[in-house]
Amino acid sequence: MEQESLPTEIILNNPRQSLGSVYLDWTPQPGSYVDFEGKTYTVLERRHRYQLKTNRYQLHKVALYVQTAQPPEERSFLRDRWVIGDMTCLYNARSELLRCAVNPSGPCKACGFYEERGE
Asked: Which of 11, 16, 99, 110 is the most buried (most CB within 10 A)?
């Protein structure tokens, strides 16, 4: 049996606001990118919403919590994935979702907390 597409609500994480709903033909995972109304967003979290129908809970819709994707100059390639920010910095989290602990909103360029990672 082929699963039909469910409505997916796109919710901007900061400031918290609903951007709208869309039907997707794939299942976005945290860390992946989704395009919506001409903008690219990074998926932070996926939540399922269920509804009680005929004495059973059925998946009703999906909610994606997203943040605006970082510009390409603020990303570095690490092994098999893109990470946010400058990987040469000691404080870089080496994550697709979080830049660093001391300056999470960035940018990395000219950051006063920059320390070269000694590896």
From this structure: 99
